[in-house]
Structure formats: structure tokens, C-alpha cells
Amino acid sequence: MNGFFDMPSDLQHTWLGLVGWHLQESLVPVLAGLLVALPVAQLCVRFNWLYPPVLWITTVLYAVPSLAFFVVLIDYTGQSQTTVMIPLALYSLVVLVPAIVDGVRSVPAETNAAAVAMGIGPVRRYLRVQLPIAVPAIFAGLRVATVSSISLVSVGALIGNQGALGNLLADAMFYHRPILAVSSVVTTAVLAILADALLVLARRLLTPWQPPGARAAARAARRGGRGAGRPSGGRPHSRDAGEGPAPALERVP
Amino acid sequence: MTPTHPATRTNPPRQDRGVFGALIVIEDVSKRYPDGTVAVDRLSLEVPDRSITVLVGPSGCGKTTTLRMINRMIEPSSGRILLDGADIQQQPVNALRRSMGYVIQNAGLFQHRTVIDNIATVPRLLGWHRQRARARAAELMERVGLDASMAKRYPYQLSGGQQQRVGVARALAADPPVLLMDEPFSAVDPVVRRGLQEELLRIQEELGKAILFVTHDIDEAIRLGDQVAVLRTGGRLAQFAPPDELLSSPADPFVADFLGADRGIRGLSFFTSAGLNLDPAPVVAVDATAKQMAKRVTPDVPYVLVTDVDGKPLGWAEPARWAEGGKTLTPYGQTFEFGRDSLRVALDCAVLSPTGWAVGVDRTGSVVGVASQESVATAIRAAHAERAVRARDAAAPGTGARGTGAPGTGARGTGARGAGPAGAARRGGAGGEAGGAPGSAAGAGAEAAQ
Ligand SMILES: Nc1ncnc2c1ncn2[C@@H]1O[C@H](COP(=O)(O)OP(=O)(O)OP(=O)(O)O)[C@@H](O)[C@H]1O
Ligand SMILES: [Mg+2]
Questions:
Q1: Which of A130, A209, A210 to mutate to test binding with chain B, by most B CBs within 10 Å of its CB?
Q2: Are B119 and B173 in contact (CB under 8 A)?
Q3: Contact state of A210 with B156 under an 8 Å Cβ cutoff
Q4: Distance between CA atoms of A147 and B367, rounded to whole angstroms?
Q5: Closest chain B residue to A208, measured at CA
Q6: Rounded to an integer, what distance in angstroms lies between the CA atom of residue A184 and that of residue A4?
Q7: Domain carrying residue A54
Q8: In angstroms, what CA-CA distances link A110 with A134, A221, B75?
Q9: Interface residues on A facing B, Cβ-Cβ cutoff 8 A
Q10: Whose CA is nearest to atom 1 of ligand 1?
Q11: In the sheet where B100-104 sits, what is the strand order?
Q12: What number is the average pLDDT over the span B154-181?
């Protein structure tokens, strides 16, 4: 493992520095994506007709290669982290919006009726009743978005070493040090696994109200009913609220 | 709690209509959904204070729609609804809703909140302090029969019946004058449902709310309702009457059909057994001599009922065999509480008794006497006749309008529900009689025909 943690000087970062940078560059877009997705999803729940076009837009955005985004964005934001993070944030929407919409829609009709009947207004109902109950579904989406974002950051290497740990891949070739490629891949993978584990932990802490067996049951139920009449059938996001490893989005830069 | 006879034990008296004013008045209300479905068609109803009004009817007849128009979850297409004399349209919607408890099927609990926080929801919305709201919630848990140890549980950790209790407690939390209940007990098994119904009646005795209760189960309607509105498909009112009147004189074939086959038998729940002629002769204590025992036997009753020294029943014996030393007892089966249980329970006991004689006991369980199937039948005829007379009296003065008209004469219950000890008033304390005092000439006519 000699050289695993020795970073070439052109990167101007220690291994730890790269890790911190990588996390920032991948997690900030997911957070931004979440902030956008929450109100968008609420609008989609309120106005059903809005959901199909919103899904369509997020899918199209997801289909645009990051390189194409870079080409456009570089004129405005230059060869910066921002240029890398904007497409990542947009990609996260393809997972987060349906996750929140499905989560909020999964709130039982009786629960909503009870809330209305108690005189809980729409905003308070969304924040205090629907979102908390949607937490498992939202976290399922967050896990997919986070893991894929962590793996996607490496693309930033293409626009002047903005890829954090991904920059090691180019250096591995340049300096003929394969260990740097191993370091990049292994570190990224470990980060993804750790982030995922932390999200699972957070979800558990946030939802003491979930029956232990229900997660598996809910997962099985969703598998069974997936795609039936949903405009989002077969999309690359997961509605799993389950415990298994989050299925990362496959994406070739 | 006295042991509950498996047959229905619900008893008189129903409250005197007209004692309490109408808290909710539904005036000529219709609801047509955008797709053209007419869910409710020119419905007029009055829900009096301190009483249970049941809406019953087949699926899709507009029960839920009616209920939800009252708390404005659905707006009527025409007509108006008054709460305490004021049009609900003029009131702020959320304040209106918080003045009405709402209980639904499957409880609709907030799954992400503990039991105590679920119950404290409305007090918190009303701006109560957390401590005060929780204290109130704890008080309500006790009231609906939930153990305090359940306070910190989440809904998934409760049985269906317990969830439903939480639902009732949550609806009562801010002490609203009105309780709207939409098939609250339909998702639990019959035994639990029975318990919840008893509990609701008990709570109602204590709190005296104006309850509008929706169900599609006619037995539940009859058990719980002070008055029952039968709706037919299309959202039209078929009949609005106290349950005993409904059973004895359904307005039309639809209502009769909806009530089911044995409504005559079921109607007996509204007659008290106080009118029964109990025979104390065949009852002997276990320490009686064979001679004493033999004296009790008549050609009519070849058996005697043996009791212990306190008068509690032990079983039936044949004196001849008893004298020979074969001291075997035939089980006496069910007993009914004389004066408190209904004629239906007494009849059931007589039918089930191995000797054909029903055993009547007092409040302590000591035997008062026994009644044959024939004497139960005699009592039924007498009760019917008495009610027919009363119905004629009520109809004769031409008091007209239901709701204000002639409360039954004489033996009716005091109507002081909510004051008495739990269950007592509903079960018809001493001498309480059920006669329905039907408020219409049609009712009296049908009576006479019986
Ligand atoms: N939002 C709606 N749009 C159109 N029609 C509706 C709507 N809600 C209810 N209906 C129709 O109105 C009628 C009455 O419905 P409602 O829910 O009040 O029935 P219900 O008596 O409560 O039935 P159930 O016993 O099955 O609960 C039904 O025919 C139903 O199909
Ligand atoms: Mg309904």
C-alpha cells in the first residue's frame, strides 16, 4: 500500500484534504437538490397534473451528459467547483422528486382526513404530518442520490482538476503510479459506503415510529406494485425504504 | 361491570326527544359531486345535544358525505347547516373543525407520533402548553380505558381496538361539544367492537356530547342510537326515528328489508323484563329437605331450581331423584337480571334453558324467580299492547312535529342521561320502559297492526 496516501504535489492537497473536498463537492449538490425537490414535490402532490411534466424534465436533465453541462456552464462559472456541482444537483432531482412525491402520497388517506378534520392547515399539514411520514421514502431517495453523487464527482477532473479524488485517476496515468488509481477508487467507494451507512443511521433515529418488520414488508409490497400505472414506472430511482445497499446510479461521464 | 349476556343487552330508555335542543340542524342539504353523482339529496336532520344520532344505510348512500359537510371537509351544493343556531358557512373553518371531534375507521392516527402526542394534537393546536396538553391527554387515556403505560407507544405497537380508543380520545381532547364518527368500529372484530360500543355509551353517559355516528351495521345503529336516520341509495332519508320505533314500524319495505329478518325479536331489547311475572315457587335452597322440595313441585313444573344458602343459583333438580340420593344438577344456563335486562334477554334465557324456564336474578345474582317461555310471551304481548296505547295517546293530541312532540307517558326513563352511574340509565334503571312514543300517526297505526 506504499503510496496510497502519498498525493502528487500538483494536486495541492493531502489525501485527507482530497477526501474533504470530495465530500463537499458531492454532498452540497444533494442538499441543494433536496431544497429544490421539497417544494417542487409538494406542488406535484397538490397539483397532480404537474407531476408528469416535472418527471419528464428531471429525466431529460438526467439524460444530458455532464460534459455537455460543463461546456455550457464554463462560460458562466469557469473551471470551478460550481461548474461540477450544478449538474450534480440537477441529477439528484431525478431521484429526490419522485421519492418525496411517493412518500407524501403514501400517507394514508385516513391520516390526511384526520389532520384536515382537526383543523390543521395545508402548510402545517405538509411540514408536520406528511413530510415526517414520508421520511423513510425520502431517505431512500437521499441514499441513492448521495452515493451516485459521490461517484460522479470524479468527472470534474475533466475541467481542470475539479474532480477531487477523481483527479488521482489522471495523475495515475500521468505519473505511471497505478496505486493512485487504486487509492481514488477505493477511497471513493469507502466514502460512498460510509455516507450510505450514516444515512441509514439517521433514518433510524428519525423514525422510531416505524415497526421493525415493516421496512422489509414495505419493500416487498413496493416491488410487487412497481410501475403499475405510474408515469415513473421503470425509472432509475429506487422507492426502496429498505436496508439493503442503495443501488447506485450507473453513469458514464 | 356485571357479566354481559351474549344476547343483546341494550335496553331502554332512549332519551326523551325534546328535552335537549338541536345542536346541529341540517336543512334541506344536497350534495352533487362535479361528476354528477348526487350523494345527498335534500336531507334534513336534527342532531340534539347530549344524544347519539346514527346515520345508517347501504354503501354509497352518502353517509360520509353528510358527515363531512358538517365539518366542512365537503361543501354542500345547496341547503345549509346550523351549529348551535349559527350557519357553519359563516365560521372560520379551522376553528369550526376544532370544535368537532372526528373519529374514523382505522383511527387515522399519526403514525409518527406517540399515543400521548396523538391525543394532545388539538389542544396543542389550540395553543395549550405542552404540559397541560399532555396532562389532558393522560386524563383522556384513562377515560377511554387505555393503560397509562401506553402513553409512549407508537400506533404500530397498538392493537386495532386500542388504536380506535386513541382515536376516540384524540377526538375528545379539546372537549368539543360535537363528535363526528365515521364507521369508527367497523375494522375490528365483533368482540372488540362490542367492547368499544359499551365504552362509547359509558363515555357518553359521562360527557353527554352531540354525537353523529355513521355505520352501515344496523345492529350497531340500534344498539347505540338514541335516534337512527336510515338513508337509501341516492342520499335520501328513508326514516328518522328512535330505534325501537324503527324496529316496530319501519316506514317502508326498504327500511324493513334493511332492518333484517328478526326485527321483532330484536325489538324486544327495548322492553324491560320488569313486566315479567316471575314465579318464586320452584326455587329452593340446597339445604332444603326432600319433603320441602317435593312440595314445590307442581304438575306444571316437574323441576326445582336449587340455590345455595345465599340464593345464588346452582342448577335444576328433579325432586324425585333428589330424594333417592341422586343429587345431580342440570346446569341452569344463562340468567337475566330482573328489571334491568330486556325481554329479549329473558326470552333468550328461556329458549336456551334445558328446562324451558328462564332464571331471573337480582343485582347481586340471587334468584328472584323463574319464568316459563309462555310467561315471557305473555309479557311481550302486554308490553306491545301498552306501547300501542301509549302511541295512540301520543298521536291523539296532535302534537305533530317530531322532536318536540309528546314524550312517552308514565314509565319512560327520566332522560337524565349523563347524570346516572355508568350504563345504568341506558340499561333502564328500575322500571324504565322503552315505549317509543312514536311521533307519528303512521307509527301508531303500525303498532295497532302488530
Ligand atoms: N369525490 C367524489 N366525487 C364523486 N363522487 C363521489 C365522491 N365521493 C363520493 N362520491 C360518491 O358519492 C356517493 C356517496 O359517497 P359516500 O362516501 O358519502 O358514501 P357512504 O355512504 O359513506 O358509503 P360507505 O358506507 O361505503 O362508506 C357514492 O356514490 C360515491 O361514489
Ligand atoms: Mg363512508
A1: A209
A2: yes
A3: yes
A4: 78
A5: B112
A6: 9
A7: 15-222
A8: 15, 20, 19
A9: 108, 110-111, 113-121, 129, 132-133, 135, 207-211, 214
A10: B33
A11: B100-104, B178-182, B210-215, B51-56, B227-232, B236-241
A12: 94
Residue of B67, B98, B104, B111 best to disrupt the A interface, most CBs of A under 10 A: B111
The whole-angstrom distance between A48's CA and the closest CA on chain B is 17
Q: Which atom of ligand 1 is nearest to the CA of B231?
A: 21
State how far residue B118 is from chain A, nearest Cα, in angstroms.
11
> Within a 13 Å sphere around the CA of B238, how many CA atoms are in the beta-carbon half?
26
* Pairwise CB contact (< 8 Å): A119 & B94: yes
What percent of chain B is predicted at pLDDT more than 90?
61
The residue with greater pLDDT, A120 or B449, is: A120
Strands B236-241 and B283-285: unpaired
- For the stretch B424-442, pLDDT in tens is 334 333 333 333 333 333 3
Sheet holding B367-372, edge to edge: B335-337, B357-361, B367-372
User: First and final CA of chain B: distance in angstroms?
Assistant: 36
Atom of ligand 1 nearest to the CA of B57: 21
Most confident of A154-168, B4-18, B386-400: A154-168
Taking contacts as CB-CB distances below 8 angstroms, the residues of chain B near A113 are 73, 102, 104, 108
Alpha carbons B445 and B346: distance in angstroms, whole number: 28
Alpha-carbon span A222 to A239, nearest angstrom: 7
> Closest approach of chain B CAs to the CA of A145, in angstroms?
25
Give DSSP secondary structure letters for B389-423.
HHHHHHHTTT--STTTS-PPPTTB----TTTSSTT
Instruction: Classify residue A244: in a domain, yes or no.
Output: no
- Closest chain A C-alpha to B260 CA, distance in angstroms: 31
Residue carrying C-alpha cell 416491488: A223
What's the number of domains chain A is made of? 1
Chain B residues touching residue A110 (CB < 8 angstroms) = 104-108
Alpha-carbon span B351 to B340, nearest angstrom: 19
CB contact (8 A) between residue A113 and residue B108: yes
Q: Is B109 helix (H, G, I), strand (E, B) or coil?
A: coil
Q: Could you tell me if residue A8 is inside a domain?
A: no
Residue A213 is assigned to a structural domain of this protein: yes
Q: What is the DSSP letter of B342?
A: B
Torsion angle of C-alpha atoms A182, A188, A190, A194, degrees rounded to 10 = 170
- The cell numbers describing A187, all together, are 477511497
For the stretch B102-117, pLDDT in tens is: 999 888 999 999 999 9
Kindly write down the DSSP assignment for every residue of B235-292, as one continuous string: TEEEEEE-HHHHHHS-SSHHHHHHH-TTHHHHHGGGSBGGGS--B-TTEEETT--HHH
Q: What is the dihedral of CA B297, B354, B374, B383, to 10 degrees?
A: 120
Contact, B349 vs B358, CB < 8 A? yes
Report CB contact under 8 Å: B108, A110. Answer: yes
Other Cβ atoms less than 10 A from the Cβ of B160: the count is 16
Q: What is the mean pLDDT of chain B?
A: 82
- Residues B275-288 pLDDT 10s: 899 988 888 888 88
All 3 cell numbers of residue A102?
411517493
> Which CATH number belongs to the domain containing residue A105 in this structure?
1.10.3720.10
Q: Which atom of ligand 1 is nearest to the CA of B214?
A: 22
User: Which residue is it, cell 328433579?
Assistant: B318
Q: How is residue B363 written as a grid cell?
A: 343485582
In a domain, A252, yes or no: no
- Does B108 reach chain A within 8 Å, measured CB to CB? yes
Tell me how far apart the alpha carbons of residues B228 and B262 are, in angstroms, rounded to a whole number.
Answer: 18
Rounded CA separation B230/B221 (Å): 9
Whether the per-residue pLDDT at B173 is higher than 60: the answer is: yes
